[in-house]
Amino acid sequence: MLSRLGDIAEVINAEIVGDPAYGISGAGTLKNALPDQISFLANRQYSEYLRTTRAGAVVLAREDLQHCPVNALIVKDPYLGFVKAVRFLYPEPAYQSGIAPSASISNSALIHASVCISAHVAIGAGVIIEENVYIGPGCVLEQNVVIGKNTRLVANVTLCHGVRVGERVLLHPGVVIGADGFGMANENGQWLKLPQLGSVIINDDVEIGANSTVDRGALGDTIIEEGVKIDNQVQIGHNCVIGAHTAIAGCAGVAGSVTIGKRCMIGGASAISGHIEIADDVIITGLSGVSRSITQAGTYSGAMVVSDIMTWRKNTARFRHLDELARRVAVLENKLKKET
Asked: What is the CATH number of the domain that holds 230?
């Protein structure tokens, strides 16, 4: 279905340069977009594609308008404007309420009439599901789970006992919320498991990517505050608190009892040690290792720069002798001071 460019401009609060009645039905890249699609330029690395784009319209900043050969939507933040435009063009799918015949549901579960429950879903005793929730195929909701309004579990999501999920939450395929945290005590070389007695609280407007896990607390609860965005294959350990509107990229691992502040950005494949705190508005770049608390906002990195294998091996070998080298330098400095 075609949408008028003028309507899109109104949604993203853009200035139109071109035809407000022009029809747009989809979105694409500057390089590959078709005349009925909208695109954007947020990174001037792709400016060469702007000059030759076949898109029907481009969302861009005013300083790039001179190079745009098609309809333009001028905004301060082109990427944000494009995101809003795409959300307008591709609204969330509507689901019809109902329960698939193959679903298994406890008689004590309280399920609003507007809920859609797909095939092979299992719902335990005492579960509460509020209005307009979608439960995708193969999901498992153990006893006493609570799910707020307009939340969507895409497929094969597992919510373990006592988990509470807020409103407008999106859980992608394979997400596991509330599995046991890794709590063990060693007795004469053998591991004794500590029962994980807490739960997980997922607040409103959270999104968690495919195959990510959030462990239940050992005693208190693991808490994901409102607006948090978690990418695919991320591990959140027990008793963590993830502050509001923090974003965590793919394959990051957060050990137990970590508190991450609000509006933080954690880069992909980062590793955060347990029992530390990270302040609000901290950015941790990808592949970083965080072993100590970060008390001030800012950007932090602990990654080693990639190099050819021979250089890396030499530097790694030398790194093993870094403490010895530092001591030798200190001795030489003291000797020089005495001689002068």
From this structure: 2.160.10.10
